[in-house]
Design a protein that fits this description.
about 210 residues, binds S-adenosylmethionine, alpha/beta, 8 helices, about 15% strand, Rossmann fold, seven-stranded mixed sheet
Amino acid sequence: MIETEEQARNYVQGLCEQSAFERLDRFAELLLEENQLQNLISKASEEQVWQRHFADSAQLLAHVPRETLSEGCDPWLDLGTGAGPPGLVIAILRPDLPVRLVESRGRRVDFLCRCVDQLSLSNCDVIGERLERVEPFPASVISARAFAPLEKLLRLSSPFSTKRTRYLLPKGRSAAHELKQQKSAIRKMFHVEQSLTDCEAGIIVSV
Ligand SMILES: C[S@@+](CC[C@H](N)C(=O)[O-])C[C@H]1O[C@@H](n2cnc3c(N)ncnc32)[C@H](O)[C@@H]1O
């Protein structure tokens, strides 16, 4: 389990190039600065940005088959990106992947666009719209943290999903319970993986 900021930094560093690691440090600065102006992350998590936000996002990569993210793959789609996790963190860690972030709130969209610009993330674009209004495209991965209850999330995201799409849904402590509430057909399509950043939290992953 990743329990400290130092462990979180070491974990993330082991997953990426030095240039990505440095970009994450810069992103942490931008995030903490902006958090003084708008409510992006909880005050309590300001001291634990690497554990609660960066490592928590980075761990999703371990649940994607290598071939899903091969050259020329469809974009990774992150729903309700808000302050950046997990989609913007993935875009920083994997500059080889196309990543699309959907966020509807104007000030958050402005912040995300500024980050993409200042961090020179040419692989990442921000769609400042409600997901319901976004023209569908096939996604290799659909991620969403704290976006919507599972049933609604699956309904809104289904136009972007293909037979090969991998869903990665960090659901905190409600993961197993939320999945259990679904119809059997849905339950069979997903399972829960243990989160590395919180021993009580789970990630709902498609089979
Ligand atoms: C609780 S925040 C989570 C932000 C981020 N994913 C995280 O984990 O820190 C949920 C975000 O989803 C956005 N959102 C909610 N419904 C949306 C929709 N239908 N389309 C696009 N964004 C939406 C909200 O504006 C908000 O920024």
